[in-house]
Amino acid sequence: EDAAGSAVDPFALVRDEVLIVSDRLCQSIVSNVPALEQAAEYFFRPGVRGKRLRPTLLLLMSSALSEQPPPPELLLPDHRPPHERPQEQRRRQQRIAEIAELIHVASLLHDDVLDDAETRRGISSLNASSGNKLAILAGDFLLARASVTLASLQNTEIVELLSRVLEHLVAGEVMQMSAGPEQLTSMAYYLDKTYYKTASLMANSSRAVAILGEQQPEVADLAWQYGRHLGLAFQIVDDLLDILGSSKQLGKPALNDMRAGLATAPVLFAAEEQPGLIPLIKRKFKGDSDVQAGLQMVQQSSGIQRAKELAAHHAQLAAQQIEALPQSSSPHALAAREALINITHRVLVRSK
Ligand code: FPP
Ligand code: MG
Ligand code: MG
Question: Which ligand 1 atom is at minimum distance from the Cα of 139?
Fold first, then answer.
């Protein structure tokens, strides 16, 4: 048994298929401009590929909504050029997993430029090692390739869903950088921003998988809600780790958020008990003394505890969406559903 109190490894169920998706991802970022290809594959190299949480949960969602397991040939690499491959349902759902990962990594490349980040996933950020210009262009390139894959699905509803995600990522980032004093101290504003920055990608790509699975609108809504609540829980835990974790553990500096002038859920809860925090939040934690004073007030409050409870609340709501799916007697679908619920527990106990 692991820390989540379960012997199931939700990642194991679709591990082989995630490898196929990763393989396809690497193929889709080939370019005849070597400098571009090198930059674009920076976070797709072995060792720095991340947890592949998004492809994993999208493939699990595909399985959760399907009576049949994926046909075995779809778990083997396909070396035919894209236009010669048949467009089975499962293959189309795999495309969503690819697109989601491409968008995610593109947003990280751009984010590290905006945040002046030095490290990511335990290595130098691309902007730090190759400069802002190349990092931005590499992100643009990944988005371009995501667009090509998206177009290949020939489904305008899916194009709109994923385009909306791009809009949300940008909107969330601009909400964060342009917040005024009232917005900086508002939990509602923080949660809206968090949906845009993190949860929208998981929510709308989950919906896309359901639509490609020819599910009823009610089921597509459950898939969307699952992604939304899981995304919110995931980001609130991320915000907690920024305060509780060490930089070594995280692969990026700790206390990054406060240093960058951001008040996240634990800080906003703490401010309800520690009014002294409010002026610090409003002036975006000027200097190390503000950060240290802020940290102390957070530690003297129930902010950490309440943020943990909020994350747990969203994780539980995510799990409830899976329980509300139409009944299935397919062992394959039921195992995937169990794994999706298991992820809602794991998201709460992760340490990086
Ligand atoms: C990480 O946040 C950043 C995001 C989840 C989204 C960033 C979005 C943009 C930069 C807009 C551009 C969008 C596209 C589609 C390229 P963080 O800085 O809080 O987390 P970190 O600790 O991982 O850096
Ligand atoms: Mg960042
Ligand atoms: Mg950022």
Answer: 16
